[in-house]
Amino acid sequence: MDITDNRRLNLTDSLKIEGFENLKRIRIKKFKLISLEIRNCSQLNEINLVELPILTSLSVTGCSNLTMITEL
C-alpha cells in the first residue's frame, strides 16, 4: 500500500491502520502526521515512512512478520 500526499487525500494528526491481514508493505510519504498506529497486519514485513517530519509517535503491534522500518 502506497499512501502519498495529494490534493484529494488530506491526512493530518493521526492515522490508524488495523486488520489488513494480507498487507505486506506500507509506504507513507509527505503527510503532516504526528501519530501513526499499525495493528494486527500479520503479513506486514516492511514500513517505509518517507518525509514525515513531525511524526512523534509510532506504535506497531500484532505485526509478527515485520522486519524493516525505514525513515527518511
UniProtKB/TrEMBL annotation:
Cited Gene3D superfamilies: Ribonuclease Inhibitor (3.80.10.10)
InterPro entries: LRR_dom_sf (IPR032675)
Origin: domain of life: Eukaryota
Name under which the protein is recorded: Uncharacterized protein
Source organism per UniProt: Rhizophagus irregularis
